[in-house]
Amino acid sequence: MPTRRRVLGAGLSVAGVGLTGASLLPVLNAREATAGPAPGVPAAGAAAVQLFAAAMPIVPVLAPVSTIGSVDRYEMTMRTVRKEILPGIQTELRTYNGQFPGPTIKARRNRPVVIRQRNQLGVDTSMHLHGASVPPSEDGSPMDTIAPGAARRYTYANKQSHASLWYHDHAHHVESENVYRGMHGSYLLTDDEEEALPLPKGEYDVLIAIRDANFDAATGALVYRMSDRARTTLLVNGAPHPRFEVAARSYRLRFANHSNQRFFELCLADNGDMVQIASDGGLLPRPHTTKAIYLTSGERADVVIDFSRYPVGTKLVLKNTGFGVVEDVSQVMRFDVVRTAEDNSSVPAVLRTLPRLPTPTAERTVVLRMDEDGRADPKAYIDEKLYDPARVDAHIRPGASEIWTVTNANTKAPHNFHMHLVQFQVLERGGAAPGPAEAGLKDTVRLLPGETVKLQATFDAYQGEYVYHCHMLDHSAMGMMATMKIG
Q1: Domains (ranges, CATH) in the chain?
Q2: What is the pLDDT of residues 360-403, one digit of tens each?
Q3: In this structure, are residues 407 and 290 in contact, taking their beta carbons and an 8 Å threshold?
């Protein structure tokens, strides 16, 4: 069975190097620059980003325009703006409400949210609430799009339990570019079960959304091309390699990988402990202490880091580690411990109790594969088929609880696997029980080359058609997507 230390493929970040806190970070990976740009793509210049010069932004929380009738109503406009991301350079972005990343929406279980989306972009869009249990009409499916100049409403009943969800564009063939150019944001759903725990709250509960980008240094433009390994500028909440001032106390950090295809392995530079408390579908049954958090594109993980073990004045780098990662992507951000603070928070030994999985009613297999022979126009497949919105690939009985065995048939390229509508539980990874990071509810799961994962999902919420796909969005845009029909 392959291990992550064997793998180098599109979007997989591996390896660590020594820290160079005062160094300059090239915008473009030098190994890619030597090969020259892709046809029609301008070469990146020699501009550099100084590590940890920018302060990490706190993503604004969107205020509802109405709360009448215990329904939170929001207005959002998808539009193009220009913002300074690299110092002194304006970059054109596709945004929600002109913000990059999009504003955070805070929701509560059983309290509906209604969002009116207006499309003022020049391309079709479709807003998908990733990880949400919603009827097909509200799912933002790839073919259910909003035309330029049009508007529509999405309604989210929020009947599921707490989870750090996120929203992004899903219009087929343009979803990859739309998300890359800025169309992504977070949706934090809470409930009484989560709020009753003594976890860090308020200003000590912080979203950290990480993604990569490739900038044309001369113009500031985001360079977009499929499976681009030159996306070596890391952005945290929209800022390049920032610093974040913290107090010497515990923080809940909600890590979210909003990259199109890059995988991250996050660890502290001193190899210090992090306590993972949640994954895609909310709190884990029990916390687990770890040195590293592994996130593929689309995955989320909440951790608690106790900064009280560091004296005021400490500067602690969050690294992206593994075997073979170049310096460009090895340093994500820096935590600067600047003050003391009281801390009444704690992490309980038991976080939640998940319902017992029902007896499975069916089993099926799914095989992911993409062309990796160097052809000029590679395609990506599920069960050797390209996505066809007119075709149903899996018929599922309402109320069924199914075991899906998902395999990555590639020898070089990594993938991951995302199902709409349902959160699932991982039963096996490579024939063995999953680790503690995968003990909770998931909606996205990694698949390294040759790897097989077995999962169980229960389809008892809504009926209709939904997609499942690789959430390396470059791959889904290349065809690695299929349709399931419940009912």
Answers
A1: 13-53+198-340 (2.60.40.420), 68-195 (2.60.40.420), 362-486 (2.60.40.420)
A2: 999 999 999 999 999 999 999 999 999 999 999 999 999 999 99
A3: no
CA dist., res. 315 & res. 337, Å (int): 6
Phi-psi region of 313 (alpha: psi -120 to 50; beta: other; left: phi over 0): left
Reduced to 3 states, what is the DSSP secondary structure of residue 293? strand
Query: What is the pLDDT, as a whole number, of residue 23?
Result: 26
Euclidean distance between CA atoms 47 and 345, whole angstroms: 43
- pLDDT, residue 317, reads 98
What is the full DSSP assignment across 106-135? EEETTB-EEEEEEE-SSS-B-EEEET----
pLDDT higher than 70, residue 26: no
C-alpha span between 102 and 93 (Å, rounded):
11
User: Is there a contact between 431 and 284 (Cβ–Cβ < 8 Å)?
Assistant: no
Lookup: tokens for 380: 């990506």
Distance separating alpha carbons of residues 322 and 303, to the nearest angstrom:
20
Check residues 226 and 92 and name the one with the higher pLDDT.
92
Q: Which amino acid is at 67?
A: T
- Whether residue 398 is preceded by a cis peptide bond, meaning omega within 30 degrees of 0, is no
* CA atoms of 96 and 103, how far apart (whole Å): 7
CB atoms within 10 A of CB 461: 16
Tell me which residue has tokens 């007896």.
Answer: 359
Q: Comparing C-alpha atoms, which of 240, 204, 172 is closest to residue 478?
A: 172
Query: How many Å apart are CA 59 and CA 56, to the nearest integer?
Result: 9
Q: 213: helix, coil or strand? A: strand
**Residue 4 CB neighbour total at 10 angstroms:** 18
Eight-class DSSP state of 436 = G
What is the spatial distance between Cα 225 and Cα 446, in angstroms, rounded to a whole number?
A: 23
| Partners of 333 in the β-ladder | 318
Half-sphere exposure in the Cβ direction for 311 (13 Å, CA): 1
pLDDT greater at residue 23 or residue 295: 295
Q: For the ranges 15-19, 99-103, 134-138, 216-220, which has the lowest average pLDDT? A: 15-19
Q: Do 271 and 291 touch, CB atoms closer than 8 A? A: yes
